[in-house]
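Archive transcription. Copying these from loose printouts into the bound notebook so they stop getting lost. Printout 1 of 2:
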Amino acid sequence: MFRQLTSQIKKSLAKKITTWVMVSLIVLIVFIISGAHWITANFYQEHLTHEVEGRLAAHAALLETEQSSEILDYINVLETGKHSVLLIVNEEGEPVFTSDNISSEKISGYIQFIEENRSEIMTHHQVTYTDEVDTMTFHIPHVWGTAAINNQDGETAGYVFIDQDTGELNVARVNLLKLLALMGTLTLLVGYLFIRYLTRRISNPLNEMSQRTQDIADGDFDIKLNVKGEDEVGTLGKNIQQMTRQLKEYRDSRREFISHVSHDLRTPITYIKGYSALMKDAENVDKEGWKRHLGVIYDEAKRMESLVSDLFLLTKLQEGKIQIHYEEVNVSEWLNSLFKSRAIMFDQKQIEGTLNVDRSLENQTISLDTFRMEQALINILENAIRFTDVNGSIRLSCYKEDENIVFEIADTGEGMDSQELDRIWERFYKADPARSRDDSGTGLGLAIVKEIVEAHSGSVKVESKKDRGTTFYLYIPFAN
């Protein structure tokens, strides 16, 4: 029976939560009651100890001036109602005054306590002590205290002793513990009912989501969850719904990816096949014509090679199969070399290219995979050149920002609207709807840039306005 119950609890989330919460509540309630027992006992006892010490000091000071019957009666009146026993003895240990109804056995015990602590009383003037009370009601121990009574010459003339009972405070403490126990029981009952209600509200939507996720696993991406609310369960339902949309988009993008690859490979293959067929079927060898045909075949083969290389690189980056090889590099020298390598492309379109490296970075070295970062920056620079008109300008800047080094590439080109900005990091996305073979590239460059920067634990950002130009930001942490 116990094993069967345990098995049911393990399989049911609601029962598992209920069991753990109830066990936690019981442990917490026991801890609170035990803590209250310990704290109240120590607090009350410490409080009484200080009070007894104060009363002893006051009584001893009063008896040092005079020990007449009036003074003794006055001290006895002060102790009345305090649930205490008062004893005054002379230097020889003989009782001078005792409270009413005290047995001789108790008096002997009190005098023995004084005798045993004479030397300590001589040093500290008074002594307090908590005795042990054997009771089944967790009685707080009594507080015993004694103080020396000195004469006018400073010699000990006797002792005043108080035995303070703690019964009244103990009753209050026991009542407090009973109240805590009652509140704990009510808390358990309310907690059980609330947890049962709460777990049902959680488990029912979870069961529905479990069924819907099984439908998703079977390929049904058109499901709709009837989970409402802004709590964690509602958020989970929304996330599952969003995941479903993303899976559907992934399926569609995969189909689109295959379509793009087929299109981009089919075009150069068609050119290669067509021109090679012309050469194969030609009856006469026309060197100039063949040279032109071979030039087209070569260009299309390079285009295919570029596409395949970019696809291979992007796939490896996304799968984390390319290791980033860090090396220390002088930022200024490295960027100058990279920028000069594209000087001819700037000249061809009469574009003004400028490089600005912050002065604080002129002699600064940072850790980068220079080969991959060159790839990323060149992709963006060539993109900027492609979409910037003649006599436009492109600026590459490098500076520090917080814990990052920032590469900023700004151009005065066509710019993009907000819809294009949301998609530029996607594979094969091209802002040019006509997909011009001369201008649009493979559509993988910016996707590769993003993967390279993120492989450096960095991030990318882009700002653009239509017909106003575009600015790319690459953030690379100093410490990788």
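Printout 2 of 2:
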Amino acid sequence: MPIFPFRPSASRRSTPAFPQKMLDTVFEHVLLDDVPHPDTPLPEDVLPACEKTEIRDGYNLCWQLLEHGVDRKAFRRLILKIALSGTASKDEQLAFKYARAKFKHMRFACANFTRQHRYPLLLHVVTIIMGNMQDAFKNHQRRATLINGLILWVVLSPVYYWLIAAPIALWKEDSTAGIIAYQKKENARLAKLIRTLDATTGHEFHVMRKIISRRVAFNDTLRTIRPSRGLDQLSEYLATINGMMGDFHDGLIEKKLEGTQDYRRDRFQSPEGIPQRIRAFLERSPH
């Protein structure tokens, strides 16, 4: 009986290669997923449907962005250097951010496009560790940088990486109806959570932001496959919310690390503007 449930070859997908221009375009969208566009209006269609081919192409595009867009050998060398030194130059921080962004976008794609509509466990865990390491070296936490870095260096090695990649390659895309149902379910969660924004916790606020982030990621992938002004507007509108929430959440993380605010217990009022934009999006979404 084999020790591992999958063969290393199972971590590959047999898909047509997208042109580099499309990979560059979707990554440009990813890098702008939290850049505010306060003057961009909310379009009429805020729950765009996808054809079966667009769903397949969208998922495969995200997979190729990760597989061909991250040089794992170079990324592991960078991780080890930062882990051992405890610091990162601006260029190193940017390189780390870019690699992590591609892992995050693939994680979102698994939730957005597959029948499972969730994150593969190991991909989710490794992305969290990347975030913890990034927070650690940005906040000059030498011990946390070292520990998270060494874990990442090991799990991204060829021996272990295929365990992360296998579910990504094997999971199947959902139908148009399944994706719409998932997005409506996410909207319902958002509508429930938004009621707490007058007195929310850091954790609740983060859960809300992740719903917005997933939707931006879905839309950014879709507008790469099917360019349109309406999809551009929807991405920009959602990116504005994502950016506003992200900036505020960075402050919450700092307070958590400083020990001045309990991330899961202490309650606060959300910044003005965020609830109004989310409510406008939900009011226009089909139920």
